[in-house]
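User: Fold this; tokens only.

Assistant: Input:
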Amino acid sequence: MTDSPLPCTMSGVLLTGHGGLDRLQYRRDLPVPRPGPGEVLIRIGAAGINNTDINTRIAWYSKEVSQATSAGGDIGFEGLSGADGTWSGTPLQFPRIQGADGCGEILAVGERVDPKRVGERVLVRPMQDPLTADGSHLITWGSECDGAFAEYALCRASEAYKIDSPLSDAELASFPCAYSTAENMLHRARVRAGERVLITGASGGVGCAAMQLAVRRGAEVWAVTSAHKGPALLKLGAAGIICREQPLAEQLEGNSLDVVVDLVAGPEFATLLEGLKPGGRYAVAGAIAGPLVELDVRTLYLKDLTLLGCTAQPREVFENLLRYIEAGELLPQVANTYPLSEIHQAQEAFLSKQHVGKLVLIP
């Protein structure tokens, strides 16, 4: 339901298959979807770029891949079947409009949705509730269903949250995926005031988010990042910087950390566990340096460590995040914006990892 006729076509980016940047096709003739029962149609104001967009495009989630994300970010991985190439482990349906981050305005609603919601400014919850009663088949917006890399997007009404904030669409679009991922990790790891927390990949979208959210909880945060990005992270509240260019073992004291928030994994995994105090907690939601690691099980059980894989998110995580945003407790970190038509250039910049914070697309 809407007060004015809906447009017939829109611009957007189609992912036509697993592979390189050439698989992303910018189009101006895509049909504008119509909301079905329980759905809303959103006019997208801005859409953030995330690692999961790259990972899904190149089928990095497949168990056939053992390299870092950067190894196939531009051209993909040759010879993959793609059968388990999504985070959920189910084949992706092509073509797909990606985009897990979206801020915009509800333009129309379907049956069983209050028509008064038309005109609401909303953020979409990226990690959405399952469609099956047994809790399987969790969905991510832009992966198991079309997302925000277009002028208009559908969403279940229950996953589109009204937001009251003076921030721009680009600033708000920098929050949903990265910050809900980070908040979920801190929530699962029970991060408390006074604890010492180490965050890897701290200059990226999730890393910056985790740092701000951990500082908000009163934790002492140490950030692993490139030396030239250190000053920016200190301004965000980091207590200290650990330089990524130097061996971690030379900079990290053993048994000195309460929590590790890891987005990198790779060859430094074992050193991270050595840095945890007995009873420490390790939370992970990414492996951009490589998914295969070496674990000495004696370190795990003799130190009574807890390892937490963090994907599914209870609804309260996103609702808490919205509360922090509306209270002005978080600073959006938008490094740059690009027109949606320049998605290839934007993802190349994303893969270069020279920025601090988020890159955002504007339809």
